[in-house]
Fold these 4 entries.
Entry 1:
Amino acid sequence: MEELVFGRRYRVTEKIGSGGMAEVYKAVDEVLGRTVAIKVLHSRYASDAAFVARFRQEAQAAANLSRRTPRMARLRAESEVVRADLLAIFE
């Protein structure tokens, strides 16, 4: 796998999953030295407003749940970064 870095901060170490809407990568936050998971919306959906809205809604739901459930991955950030990828970053 070629080196993949998102936002000049998150260095991908491996791909850990893929689904119909997104791919999930294990990465290292180069600033804080923490391992994170990055969910990346497939590029074919990035220009589809309905898919983008659904992706953001899912990220917001995860953020709301993780505040009440200590064992659930916590949403750290959601942003549009390099190459117009839509990301959700969990730790």
Entry 2:
Amino acid sequence: VGGGAGYAVSNGDPYVTMGGAAGGALLGSLLAGPNKKRERQVYNSGYDRGRADALKRHYWLHQRSQASINGSASGRTVYYTVPARNQTGEEGITKMPHSVTIPVVE
């Protein structure tokens, strides 16, 4: 709307048209206000990715420390898969059902 108004008022001057378009975009974003729901979704998505990354780093750090402690562990490794149920975390985020694989050295 701002670009069209700028074009009509200036008889096609491209600089006034661009200024009108920029002004219209600015006014539209001010009138619409911040989108709190979308901001929260983006924040939660980034937070979940960060937690998952930290968990992976912790897992591999633990694996490396166990390997150095055990050296060449004798025995065989058996993997048990256990179903996990829905859980609601402290942040109110519900985790979907999934399975967890647990390695056990026998």
Entry 3:
Amino acid sequence: MEHKFGQPLIRPLRDLSPAAYRRFTPAAHHGGMKLKVHIDREACLAYGDCAELAPEAFEVDDTAHLVGSAPLRRMVDAARACPSEAITLIDAESGEQIAP
């Protein structure tokens, strides 16, 4: 990915160790996919976009935190809406990153 001036976009590395993830299953009508949800608390700027898009799953005070589950589509939308890309969704079975 490149910036419009030809400079490469460099994203900071985040700690994605397994201990930092919380596993949960989105709403049952989405096939029961199990997700690992990681919120990088140092990257989170507490804008609240995630809680606005999926209030049943996220709450924000000083940082965002997971409080429940939501349909997969809303979880993905919430992760993609995060301006600091602090939310990462991983398929728990395949290890594939789903969002952002």
Entry 4:
Amino acid sequence: MEHASPEAIREALAHVYTEGDSTVENISQADLIHARLVGGPAAKARREALGELLRIGYVNGKQLKKTTADVSDQFGDILAGYQTDRPRGG
């Protein structure tokens, strides 16, 4: 770090997220259902794609709410896209 350029440090920090106790619940179960991430025939495939996007790996429906709370800033933006995205057949 001591020899890194300011731009390299900014770039590295742009991809950092922290895990921690989130006392504020930003994502409800209804949000996850509306985004078809739980409770539907294509939910597992959508969670797999989400895990890749967030770089958190596969998360089952029961773990999704807690896991996404750890990366809620990224997840909030992605969730908005999932809620408006209505691919056919799933």
